[in-house]
Structure formats: structure tokens, C-alpha cells
Amino acid sequence: MIGSIASEIGQIDYSEESVANIVGISTMECYGVVGMASKNAKDGLWETIRGGSLSKGVKIRSKNNELLIELYIMVEYGTKISVIANNIIQKVKYNVENYVGLKVSTITVNVQGVRV
Q1: What is the DSSP string of 46-115?
Q2: Which among 3, 48, 68, 87 could bridge 35 via Cys, Cβ 3.0 to 4.6 Å?
């Protein structure tokens, strides 16, 4: 469980996987993002992830009831990386705070490669 919201009616608990899927989908919707990157622990290679397992390029931690999100992405050649990263940060923060209701304190975007 990465976070929870309680009200007078009950409590909602969020798993890390569910929030990571929202983050992954929000990231892939941004212009210039080719895919999420996942580090393979065996041989240290970075591989591009598309489609179903977008959460593998996302690390989420909870600190003081706020989320710290770390993203690993691949970008398209010829795009300005700082603009892409800024768009991702704004979109992910907006979507997580509005859809889930949890506060996001930090988003770190790690660009692992550029695809032609």
C-alpha cells in the first residue's frame, strides 16, 4: 500500500502498482516520449517497455503521506528534453492528484536514451 484516503464512509487504500499505472499512462501520453525504460537487474541493460507494463519504468515511494515519483523514459530524437520532462512533471502531478487524491511532492524524470 502506497497511500490511503479516509473519510466518514470508509477508507481507500492504493497499491503501488495502481498508482504506477496511472503515472505510466500519463507519461506515455506526453509528446516526445517513445517508451518507458526498465533496468534489467541481471545484466544492467536498459530495455524499452511499451504497452501493458508501463509501471516497470516507475518507482514510487511514500514519505509523510506524500508521493515521491521517479520515472525512467526514452525520448524521441530531435525533441527538446527539458520541455518533455517539464510536460511530464506537470501532467503526472495533475493526474495523480486529481484521479487518486494523493499529494505528489517530487517527480524525477530520468532520460535513459534517445531513439531515432
Answers
A1: EEEE-GGGGGGGEEEEEETTEEEEEEEEEEETTS-HHHHHHHHHHHHHHHIIIII--EEEEEEEEEEEEE
A2: 48
| Burial 9-33, CB ≥16 within 10 A → b, else e | eeeeebebeebbbbbbebbbebebb
Amino acid present at 30? C
**Contact of 8 with 69, CB cutoff 8 Å:** no
Q: Which domains does the chain have, with CATH numbers?
A: 16-115 (3.30.70.1350)
> What integer best gives the mean pLDDT of the chain?
87
Whole-prediction pTM: 0.85
